[in-house]
Specification:
- The protein is an alpha+beta fold and 122 residues long.
- The strands form 2 sheets. A two-stranded antiparallel ribbon has the order 1-4. A two-stranded antiparallel sheet has the order 2-3.
- The chain has a single domain, classed as 2-Layer Sandwich (Alpha-Beta Plaits), CATH 3.30.70.20.
């Protein structure tokens, strides 16, 4: 397993890093996320962030898991009222996250590429 994170750029946030990658990680399908923020309350390591929505950033906010900090506890997936959070193995999670993420402030995704991925799912 590679220790190198697959994203080209990460905005530094003032939070402690996780000691090692978990066996599994949470990935939020933002095409189904309502931004209710229920998952944030259950996260024991505060790794779920609020990010602007894809169409109206100030009105349609979404949430996103900081994969570098997720410990794979499954609490967010268990208590998401919209069932938009899935648990993936670490390797699969970092691969599938960009396909399910519509908009992100945590990682430097190409917005057009993310919107195309979301449209191809619908």
């Amino acid at each position: 397993m590679s220790d190198e994170f697959p994203y080209s750029y990460k905005i530094e946030i003032d939070k402690a890093p996780r000691p090692k990658p978990p066996k599994q990680t949470a990935v939020i399908d933002q095409t189904g996320c309502t931004g209710c923020e229920a998952c944030i309350a259950f996260c024991p390591v505060d790794c779920i962030e609020i990010v602007p929505g894809p169409v109206h950033p100030d009105f349609m906010k979404l949430v996103e898991v900081d994969l570098e900090r997720c410990i794979g506890c499954q609490l967010c997936a268990r208590y998401c009222p919209w069932e938009t959070i899935d648990m993936w193995s670490w390797e699969e999670g970092v691969e599938v996250a960009p396909k399910l993420t519509v908009r992100s402030l945590l990682y430097d995704y190409e917005p057009e590429e993310m919107h195309e991925a979301a449209e191809s799912r619908g």
